């Protein structure tokens, strides 16, 4: 489809990118208006993956919502579970055993690494560096093996529960994670030798998709996309949850707010997450991994099989669910992609009256037109990659 | 500034348009009159002591059954002061409409489109108020409580898409 803007000099062309385009990372559709190869206007269309998660949640008990959260940012299930669990726990006003909190941190940081690995793999592939893809998937596979060991599932783990985690870490876990943590820094350096100083990579990323710190805040960017512009905001530092204040790590910052800076930040974040996982292995205290609060958490399985009261509690919790007090809370965490928030409204019944998800990708994508307008068509591919979007949480 | 101090500070500035204060689980909620929302938002962003430069989230809540209103809820955050605030603007369910805050925070654009899509609340002065998540000829507002879980579309979604392609 073409449209003539000024018949004497130029033709603007509107082209459709996606929703079935490999570099749109899912079902994102972009309408691009081009003047030659320069983009004059970009309009994102989303919603192809809309499943009505927020509506579905209103018809489920608080525990039954956990599997729904797995399917938001499906490459970072633990982070989604955690943000939701934190919201419900805040609503209930309950405390979580320390062991469970450290397990959560450990798994969320592994998730961050896995999510960043998928981002790096596909981002590099989009720009034409194929080897990186295979390297990243090798390490991602190792993390998914760990997830499978812990939760029994690779992607939709539903492992973090309201009140803690579903069960304690299995035997062989520590050794496996330790092995990964020791090997991983060398692997990151391997990726870096392929990209960081690579002239082709730098040509495609330096100075591309720039957003200033001021605009980034105005557009509500969060996570690495915001820090790439030099804004120091990491919820793990500013509003520490799950004992993050006990860990030592730095928050890498960019300067120019371009694709390259966002790349550098995520790579450095993998180093930092690896450090946190290592610390968590050493900190991990002994104790319960699920709070024992009647009418909130399920009693231990052995009790259910031997004690009448435990079985009744179990039955009541499964059929009726928990009843948080009337009220509303907002809990957010630093997910791999940015601020992931859950706004929960309770009317005192066993189902959420309203569950609103604040997905980082949705907000980050909104700034895409700002980053690509006036730039060349191939820059769109690089910029989308650098925002690290997942359509599962954009469309919900 | 703690929650009580912040509530008093903002209330003295807008004694008439702020109609309620609530603190639950250490979170401050202010209820505001819908027509004042843009003005209050601008003040909260530009005041140096509050400095709410970041709009985390904006969404709707259906309160038609109890209060005959839709609530539009704003979650604000201050990057420099590290504090949060929730604003609530109830709008009548008969003609749900209120001023936009896209002039204050650009990020409100998509959030308001989503609220319009899900609840049918219109935002006066919004530069581009289109549906965002549902298909173009989707009828109704799915997150309203009177909308059934299994939908009530005239045709299957497949037919809708097929029609759109012709």
TrEMBL record, chain B:
It is a peripheral membrane protein. It catalyses: a quinone + NADH + 5 H(+)(in) = a quinol + NAD(+) + 4 H(+)(out). Transmembrane segments: none annotated. Residues 30-152 form the NADH:ubiquinone oxidoreductase 30kDa subunit domain. Its main location: membrane. SUPFAM superfamilies: Nqo5-like (SSF143243). Gene3D superfamilies: NADH:ubiquinone oxidoreductase, 30kDa subunit. Keywords: Cell membrane, Membrane, NAD, Quinone, Translocase, Transport, Ubiquinone. The keyword Translocase applies. GO terms for cellular component: plasma membrane. The keyword Lyase does not apply. It is found in: Cell membrane. It is an enzyme of class 7 (translocase). It comes from the Bacteria. Its EC number is 7.1.1.-. GO terms for molecular function: NADH dehydrogenase (quinone) (non-electrogenic) activity; NADH dehydrogenase (ubiquinone) activity; quinone binding. InterPro entries: NADH_DH_suC (IPR010218), NADH_quin_OxRdtase_su_C/D-like (IPR037232), NADH_UbQ_OxRdtase_30kDa_su (IPR001268), NADH_UbQ_OxRdtase_CS (IPR020396). NDH-1 is composed of 14 different subunits. Subunits NuoB, C, D, E, F, and G constitute the peripheral sector of the complex. NDH-1 shuttles electrons from NADH, via FMN and iron-sulfur (Fe-S) centers, to quinones in the respiratory chain. The immediate electron acceptor for the enzyme in this species is believed to be ubiquinone. Couples the redox reaction to proton translocation (for every two electrons transferred, four hydrogen ions are translocated across the cytoplasmic membrane), and thus conserves the redox energy in a proton gradient. Belongs to the complex I 30 kDa subunit family. This is NADH-quinone oxidoreductase subunit C. It comes from Candidatus Brocadia carolinensis.
């Amino acid at each position: 489809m073409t449209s003539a803007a000024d018949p004497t000099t130029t033709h603007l062309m509107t082209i459709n990118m996606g929703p079935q385009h490999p570099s749109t990372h899912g079902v994102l559709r972009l309408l691009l208006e081009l003047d030659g190869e320069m983009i004059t206007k970009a309009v994102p269309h989303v919603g192809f993956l809309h499943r009505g998660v927020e509506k579905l949640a209103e018809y489920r008990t608080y525990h039954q919502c956990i599997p729904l959260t797995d399917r938001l940012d499906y490459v970072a299930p633990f982070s989604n579970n955690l943000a939701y669990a934190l919201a419900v726990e805040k609503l209930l006003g309950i405390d979580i055993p320390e062991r469970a909190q450290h397990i959560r941190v450990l798994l969320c940081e592994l998730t961050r690494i896995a999510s960043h690995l998928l981002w790096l793999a596909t981002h590099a592939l989009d720009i034409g560096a194929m080897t990186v893809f295979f390297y990243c998937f090798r390490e991602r596979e190792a993390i998914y093996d760990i997830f499978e060991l812990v939760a029994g599932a690779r992607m939709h783990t539903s492992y973090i529960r309201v009140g803690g985690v579903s069960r304690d870490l299995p035997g062989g876990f520590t050794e496996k994670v330790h092995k990964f943590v020791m090997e991983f820094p060398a692997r990151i350096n391997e990726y870096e030798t392929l990209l960081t100083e690579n002239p082709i990579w730098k040509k495609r990323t330096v100075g591309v998709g720039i957003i200033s710190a001021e605009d980034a805040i105005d557009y509500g960017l969060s996570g690495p996309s915001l820090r790439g512009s030099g804004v120091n905001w990491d919820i793990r530092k500013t509003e520490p949850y799950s004992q993050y204040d006990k860990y030592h790590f730095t928050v890498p910052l960019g300067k120019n707010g371009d694709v390259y800076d966002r790349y550098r930040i995520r790579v450095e974040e993998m180093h930092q997450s690896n450090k946190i996982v290592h610390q968590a292995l050493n900190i991990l205290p002994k104790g319960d991994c699920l709070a024992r609060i009647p009418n909130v958490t399920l009693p231990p399985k052995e009790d259910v099989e031997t004690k009448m009261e435990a079985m009744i509690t179990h039955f009541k919790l499964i059929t009726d669910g928990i009843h948080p007090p009337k009220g509303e809370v907002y809990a957010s965490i630093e997910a791999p992609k940015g601020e992931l928030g859950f706004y929960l409204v309770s009317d005192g019944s066993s189902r959420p009256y309203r569950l609103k998800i604040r997905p980082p990708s949705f907000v980050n994508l909104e700034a895409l037109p700002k980053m690509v307008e006036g730039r060349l068509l191939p820059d769109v591919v690089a910029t989308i990659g650098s925002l690290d979007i997942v359509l599962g949480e954009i469309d919900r | 500034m703690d929650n009580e101090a912040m509530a008093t500070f903002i209330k003295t500035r807008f004694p008439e348009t702020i109609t309620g204060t609530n603190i639950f689980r250490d979170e401050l909620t202010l209820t505001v009159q819908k027509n004042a929302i843009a003005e209050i938002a601008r003040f909260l962003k530009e005041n140096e002591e509050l400095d709410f430069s970041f709009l985390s989230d904006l969404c709707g809540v259906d309160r038609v059954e109890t209060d005959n209103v839709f609530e539009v809820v704003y979650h604000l955050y201050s990057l420099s002061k590290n504090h949060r605030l929730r604003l609530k603007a109830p709008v009548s369910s008969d003609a749900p409409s209120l001023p936009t805050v896209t002039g204050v925070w650009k990020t409100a654009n998509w959030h308001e489109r989503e609220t319009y899509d899900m609840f049918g609340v219109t935002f006066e002065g919004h530069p581009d108020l289109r549906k965002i998540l549902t298909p173009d000829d989707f009828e109704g507002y799915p997150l309203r409580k009177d909308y059934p879980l299994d939908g009530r579309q005239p045709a299957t979604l497949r037919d809708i898409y097929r029609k759109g392609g012709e």
